Amino acid sequence: TEAEVQPLNDLILQLGINPNLKVSTLEAADAIETLATAGLSMAEIIDGAAESTVLLSNASGGDFAQSAEIMTDSMAIFKDSIGSYAEAVNGVVAVSNVSKFSVDDYALALAQAGGVAGSIGVEFDDFNTSIAAMAPLFASGSDAGTSFKTMLGRLVPQSAEAEAAMARLNLIQTDWAGAAAELSERLGREVLPTHHDVINAY
Fold first, then answer.
1. How far apart are the first and last CA of the chain?
2. Strand, helix or coil at 104?
3. How much is the pLDDT for 177?
4. To the nearest whole number, what is the mean pLDDT of the chain?
5. Distance between CA atoms of 94 and 129, rounded to whole angstroms?
6. Residues 6+ apart with CB under 8 A from 154
7. pTM above 0.85, yes or no
8. Phi and psi at residue 57, to the nearest 5°
9. Disulfide check for 180: which of 93, 144, 149, 191 has CB 3.0–4.6 Å away?
10. Cα Rg of the chain, angstroms
11. Residues 90, 106: contact at Cβ < 8 Å?
12. What is the per-residue pLDDT across 111-137, written as a single tens digit (0 to 9) for each?
């Protein structure tokens, strides 16, 4: 109803007249629409997501829709290591400030490697540090993100020899044999002691 959306109307006007922000009411409305489309609740949008999106766009020179997508993707992927939308803005801006990558490159790197990085436990700050450090070696954020994703994937051993070597280097902390034995008991059938079988059984 009109009453229910009034808080968003008020927010759009507040963003548009905020002297510290460079955004029109129409641009603010578009950013809020992108945030809502990405699944954010009205409370999340009002409590900082919208303003942080505008701040990111102003700081990076990117458009508001793209900034909204970066914000929502970062928060979703690295939800366990980002405490606030302001922290997300600072992380993204820091990468563009200390490297040759623009916010466009960051968006491409996040699209390529963010999902894999987040799923294996890479924290937001570590992801940003890695992308910034790799920037001089790659022509675009897409290339850097693809290479980073490939490197992370190779950290999962592909053979017994690789698993043994990685264990010697303390890159593997999981006792797959023990985990397989536990699963065998739990499932009532034998599970092979390899990471693939254990993961599939789970």
1. 45
2. helix
3. 63
4. 85
5. 9
6. none
7. no
8. -65, -45
9. 191
10. 21
11. no
12. 999 999 998 889 999 999 999 999 999
> What's the CA gap between 193 and 113, in Å, rounded?
28
What residues contact residue 148 under an 8 Å CB cut-off, 6+ apart?
109, 112, 113, 117, 130, 131, 134
Instruction: Note the pLDDT of residue 198.
Output: 44
Q: What is the DSSP string of 139-158?
A: SSHHHHHHHHHHHHHHTS-S
Residue 150 in 3-state DSSP?
Answer: helix
Residue type, 141: G
Distance CA 181, CA 177 (A): 6
Question: Which pLDDT belongs to residue 186?
Answer: 67
Burial of 87 (0-12, 13-18, 19+ CB in 10 A): middle
| Helix, strand, or coil (residue 27) | helix
Helix, strand, or coil (residue 64) = helix
Q: Residue 34: count other Cβ atoms within 10 Å of its Cβ.
A: 20
Please identify every stretch of the chain with a pLDDT value under 50, giving residue numbers as ranges: 195-202
Residue-level pLDDT at 65: 87
